[in-house]
Design brief:
186 residues, 24% strand, alpha+beta
């Protein structure tokens, strides 16, 4: 009889489902929030990367339209590249812009032309290394190429403590529209 007084309330408590939905919600809710924030982070990261790609293409396009780049045109092109990153922080963007000319190698007619840096403008980032190696496959004697590297340190709004900042570096290779080699005005 005394045992029945103890077992009966325990059985009733085990069959009671009034708080079950609240308990399941409390268990699933944090997982759903983490998934939602992860999807938002991923979307923002992809958007930032697409904007960095567009920024490098815009700068290269603007600079390869002219025969000789002035300081004003260079700054205007970099400003356009920064504006392409809207709504992200444009103060953190860096540019490495290089004009390369391919000189014919005088030693042998079958040798590939040597890439020579005509001018370079680096702003808010370290210069990219190995430029001659990077552009050797584009070599055409007497021709040239414009390289635009854009560096953007993306700060995830929610996941900074988990993944930290993500530095995105995108590049664009472009040839001059009207002249083979884009020069720089002094």
């Amino acid at each position: 009889m005394a045992l029945n007084l103890i077992i009966k309330p325990i059985r009733q408590w085990g069959r009671d489902v009034r708080g079950l939905a609240a308990m399941e919600f409390a268990m699933v809710f944090p997982i759903m929030i983490v998934l939602l924030l992860g999807i938002i982070e991923l979307g923002n990261g992809i958007q930032a990367n697409q904007k960095v790609i567009a920024s490098s293409q815009i700068v290269a396009d603007l600079l390869t339209r002219v025969e000789e780049v002035t300081d004003e045109q260079l700054e205007d092109a970099k400003s356009a590249g920064r504006l392409a990153l809207t709504p992200f922080d444009q103060d953190l963007v860096g540019f490495d812009i290089i004009s390369v000319r391919y000189d014919a190698d005088g030693a042998d007619d079958d040798a590939e032309p040597d890439p020579v840096i005509v001018w370079r403008d680096t702003t808010n980032m370290d210069p990219i290394a190995n430029i001659p190696v990077n552009v050797q496959s584009l070599a055409l004697a007497g021709d040239g190429v414009m390289l635009v590297y854009v560096r953007f340190p993306y700060e995830p709004p929610f996941g900074t403590r988990i993944v930290g900042n993500i530095t995105m570096i995108e590049n664009t290779f472009s040839r001059g529209r009207t002249v083979p080699v884009i020069t720089r005005a002094n």
